[in-house]
Amino acid sequence: MTPLVVIPDAEQTPGLLDRSRPYVEGQLRAVGLMRHATSEGRAAVLLTVDLPDGTQVVAQTTWRLFDAAARALAVTPIVAEEVTGP
Hints:
The protein is α+β, with helices and mostly antiparallel strands. The chain has helices spanning 63-74, 77-84, and strands spanning 27-34, 44-50, 56-62. The protein has a 3-stranded antiparallel β-sheet with strand order 1-2-3.
């Protein structure tokens, strides 16, 4: 499984999105869990994204990595602003 990079402020991270390369924006459609998804039998989080041309993109990471990323993001100032509001 590919390591998961956590970016606390994507807008302030130059190079995160390489706009010189072709890209298509999609709509996150679903998030789910898959039991025993890894070769070690661990759970994985599955994300599906619908692209404008009808293509479906599927991405997955382990639950452990996803949970660690969510916890890391939860303590950022961006989330604090979102939770408390202006």
